Amino acid sequence: MALVKDLEKEPGALQSYIDSPEKKRQLYRRTMIIVILSQIFGGAGLAAGVTVGALLAQSMLGTDSFAGVPAALFTLGSALAAWLVGRYSQRFGRRLGLGFGFLVGGAGAIGVVLSAISNNIVLLLFSLFIYGSGTATNLQARYAGTDLATSKQRATAVSLAMVSTTFGAVAGPSMVGVTGNFAASLGIPSLAGPFMLAAAAFIVAGIVILILLRPDPLLVAGAIASHESKQQGADANKSSHTAGSQRGIIIGATVMILTQIVMVSIMTMTPIHMKHHGHGLQQVGLVIGFHIASMYLPSLLTGILVDKIGRKAMAVAAGITLLLSGIIAATAPGDSMPALIIALCLLGLGWNFGLISGTALIVDATTFQNRAKTQGSVDVLVALSGASGGMLSGIVVAHSSYAALSIGGSILSLLLIPVMFWASKR
Questions:
Q1: CA dist list (Å): 242 to 227, 228, 237, 289
Q2: Residue among 217, 197, 199 at smallest CA distance from 207
Q3: pLDDT tens for residues 356-373?
Q4: pTM
Q5: How far is C-alpha 89 from the geometric centre of its chain's CA atoms?
Q6: Is there a contact between 104 and 133 (Cβ–Cβ < 8 Å)?
Q7: Distance between CA 358 and CA 41 in Å, rounded?
Q8: Which fold is adopted by the domain 2-228+243-425?
Q9: Per-domain residue ranges of the chain
Q10: What are the two backbone dihedrals, phi and then psi, of residue 365, each rounded to the nearest 5 degrees?
Q11: Do the beta carbons of residue 223 and residue 18 sit within 8 Å?
């Protein structure tokens, strides 16, 4: 394994972290600060596609039937990026994997702006696919904080990374009007404005990671794990751990996949639903801003709850919260801003519960030797499920209604309860 060979090249530097638990704790705190900083910028970058991606596609394609295509494309792009970033990180460390992932996402956002200027549909679709790299990398960065965390800190470490995303993710939608006006003043379509912000945000996030994330937390964690395995015996309890690992990975992945499908499908069509009921771009940005705040802002409390009361209990809470969100979205009047805000806030909160509890299950079930690779593979499945939800959501609404889509999401979210019951029985 290349990563292990890299560890052996710097034995002196890495040995100090093995010998000194205090120095390891200091590096953990420093890593969290860098991850938080990158997440603030990354959050601003991912908000553009969520807020105006469907509206831009609707404007350029001239139909609602394909309004879910942007979410599907950048989610498919994020699936490929998650796979690549996971394997690249496993081989070379978090710094290079995350840094280049953000830079590619920034290039995709630039391509979206150019496609809007030239009204080039092919360039738009390709650029949205590339833009997904930034989304995937922003999500994968949550794992970097767990590399040096203890078992009782893992969910909290994930939550710290995610809550910092709130600052950029909420600022992004709230600046839809400002960035749109700025783009229009330059002769660029206003809907491309948020992607101009996304390009700058992703590129800055990548630069922060590439310059500051030294020493690489995954490399240090690997050195510590290698040292401990030599002391304790590499094959101790290996078979029992493998069986438990596979079960934990399946359960964690299932939680994240179900919550992702429900969240993406309802979220994608909410801007279209609002536009049909006379809401303007600023109001769409406000609702999506509340939604994204609910996705990330409760993370700190969620992480503590996941560490304290358990991963499976919070997964069940995710299913119940998503159920309530779907019911409110389906029954609320389309012109009611308060009702839409409540529904989308619950949607974000349910996703938050599911992502953090599922992530903690995945981290618990992996070791240094397969952690980054497994995390990337699971995020591929999560991204593909989101792409399916985004694509199908436009078709469902075009041939039925937003209410039918929301009810379908409610029913799907209930599957989390029997899944957790099965996990407890096992």
A1: 20, 18, 9, 42
A2: 199
A3: 999 889 988 887 778 788
A4: 0.74
A5: 17
A6: yes
A7: 24
A8: Growth Hormone; Chain: A; (1.20.1250)
A9: 2-228+243-425
A10: -95, 0
A11: yes
